[in-house]
Design brief:
With 346 residues, this protein is α+β, with helices and mostly antiparallel strands. It has helices spanning 87-91, 160-166, 168-188, 205-211, 214-222, 253-263, 312-322, 337-345, and strands spanning 10-14, 20-31, 34-41, 47-51, 59-61, 65-74, 77-86, 99-106, 122-127, 145-154, 197-198, 201-202, 224-226, 235-239, 247-251, 267-274, 288-293, 299-306. The longest helix is centred in the middle third of the chain and has 21 residues, at 168-188.
Amino acid sequence: MDLNKMIGYKFFKENEDNEIECIRILKYWNLGNTESIKVLNTKTNEDKIIDMRDLKTYTALKPDAMLMFSSVMIDGNEDVIIAAYLLDRLENRDMRPFCVCRQGITDVYYNLLIKDESDMLAGLSMNILNIPQGFDYGIMLTSDEVKFSNAYMIYKDDTVSTILDTFSETLKDYDDTMKKIYDKYCASNPAAIFRDEDKGWCKTLRLLLQNNNFQSDLDEMMGITTVEFEIDKYLEEAKVSEESKESYLTVTDELKYWLSYLYKININKVFVLPYDNDIEFESLSKSRYFIFRDISNKLFVFVYTIGSEYKEAELEELDKKLDFSTKFRINYLDKYKNLIEVNINC
């Protein structure tokens, strides 16, 4: 077992109180005859150092993806690259990252909209589903030298924020590199010294990932749709049948109508599963389902059945009557909104 390749892995076991204990690998040391790992208890958020042999009492949870952070040199300049790989693709020898975020590259999306080169932005996040025509995706990973890198295994319930917080100890070197890059930019743009970002150049790793909507790319990779409301408020219990005492968690009629309207399908029943790492999505392969992340970062799996006919006219009437848009919205991050408004006004 190469634990250097298992940073971020989660392991679980049933403890003496018959409760499930879940730990996550944060760091690994090989000190001669002793192999030690630093782990985080995902429930208490407390960390401790254990012997690698203690892992034999736990069961591993297969990750969904790998996140690779790299500090590189290109044309004499330092740069930071963050690439995300789906493990299923890697196992099938598809080595292309699903998405990549990079600081030292011009934003090819925004720069198509500007009138003057002085308005160009640096920093870009791109995934394999939105590569502009004629753009070489390989450029997102190009470098002359990799100075250092770190790989982390991640899961569907991870976010940019939790990843940076969980692995902050081993990611601090990338913040140091980001500051060096920003200081070099400030040498020719002294007014930026008093800011944490300027024209896409960011002082920290967190700003780079947040400003370039990297979370949206991660969610797209994981098949997750992010919404701007609390899903819990629109859940209720429903009986399996009139005669049965058993029930299941479902959505309110209002949310079901919105889902039908949004996806242009006639949804009949919805079975809601609060997300857990032990959900076997392979067992759902023949089912229809959505994965949603709500405004409180809770994940839910909606398994649904559909009727035979999509009643578009009726749903449009319901939309007008219930005004879906005031309650239910998909979260669209837009780094360009204010910038485009400024350019338009100019």
